[in-house]
């Protein structure tokens, strides 16, 4: 029997026996969360189930093309409380912690439907009714693919596109260390449905604005070094957003840039969301881990991509705090 087969069987049983589902993912959904949700949404709809996708935060612009009418992916509001409470099952995709669901999580903490989690983030103990967590998967989309294959589902164009975007974005377009032979086999199956992978790539990665380029140029232009050039760090004060006419969502991909410098082991981006709230993102090449660093700051993530939110601290304080910690994570 394959590892995790028991939990996969129980998830398949849950899908068969229950009628109404709410799908959700973590705050600030990424391509893996959105793509996995839409793939599972179409599968469940094909089975005649009632399905809602309700996320803690709005659909990111980069993935709107997957739901062009904006009717499938909703952002949680109080009017959703009943839908969530009365559904037969809630499926958490690309996360396992109810605490990462904002107000939606609070509504669920009181009581709520049967909870199923499908995720590939490293976690310590989860309290969902069913949890399939496989850290070897490059993306949650890879797990959704496995589930749908075992369910005997058909890879429709919409399902294939969702899974492809999930895997493409979580693997940095098939470059990161999390990519396996299996990842490519899944991708090959998806391409055989006739999906236009180049179109999906362009829609996600080649749809930037002039303002976003100004934000990147300014931020990379002011990049700093630490720990004998093994750490590169950048900051975006709120005034830079104002000056360049951009928002936090336009920072997507920026923290990846310093990874291309040979000596850099850790890339850090500080984003001033408010005077006392700083988002910190970390990236590292495969031989250096940054998940522990994010966890030490109350955040989380993967070995080579993690983040934390520092509250009650100014931008300069956040920078001092993180730079004091980072040394022990470089080698
Ligand atoms: Mn993921």
Textual characterization of the structure:
By secondary structure, this protein is an alpha/beta fold. The chain has two domains: 201 residues, inorganic pyrophosphatase (n-terminal core) (Alpha-Beta Complex); 120 residues, Diaminopimelate Epimerase, Chain A, domain 1, CATH 3.10.310.30. It is built from twelve helices and twelve strands. The strands form two sheets. A six-stranded parallel beta sheet has the order 3-2-1-4-5-6. Strands 7-8-9-10-12-11 form a six-stranded mixed beta sheet. The protein binds manganese (II) ion (MN). Manganese (II) ion binds next to loops.
Uncertain spans: none
Biggest sheet: strand arrangement:
3-2-1-4-5-6
Percent of residues in β-strands: 15-25%
**CATH fold descriptor of the largest domain:** inorganic pyrophosphatase (n-terminal core)
At a glance:
This protein has helices spanning 5-17, 31-46, 81-86, 102-110, 140-150, 157-170, 181-191, 197-205, 210-221, 238-244, 291-296, 315-326, and strands spanning 20-25, 50-55, 73-75, 89-93, 114-119, 130-133, 224-226, 231-236, 266-274, 277-283, 300-301, 305-311.
